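Progress note, sequence design subtask.
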């Protein structure tokens, strides 16, 4: 039995490598909408953040999402994402315990 491989992703704010399910995905969709993707399955360019508000604030301060998504993310988008982030935080924490590792 070999141990199950846990997919790791890097948080764009603190640069830490974390198991994918510990991270919240932000996606830029093909029609240039930037949103939080709790399912992790939306198509587009993704960026990962720890499920912590402090990391979101860091990303906002450093414009980490701009770099990760290769797009200009305006302050109002950061603000909107931050609201979403706060809203999904609880759901995300609840999901973490139930979600199985997906393919990959
Ligand atoms: Zn982080």
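Output:
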């Amino acid at each position: 039995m070999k141990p199950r491989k846990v997919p790791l992703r890097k948080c764009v704010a603190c640069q830490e490598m974390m198991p994918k399910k510990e991270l919240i995905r932000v996606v830029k969709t093909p029609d240039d909408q930037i949103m939080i993707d709790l399912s992790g399955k939306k198509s587009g360019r993704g960026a990962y953040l720890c499920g912590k508000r402090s990391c979101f604030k860091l990303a906002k301060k450093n414009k980490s999402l701009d770099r990760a998504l290769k797009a200009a993310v305006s302050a109002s988008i950061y603000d909107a994402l931050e609201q979403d982030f706060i809203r999904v935080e609880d759901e995300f924490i609840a999901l973490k315990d139930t979600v199985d590792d997906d393919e990959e």
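The helical segments are 53-62, 64-69, 75-96. Work on this subtask will continue into the next period as scheduled.
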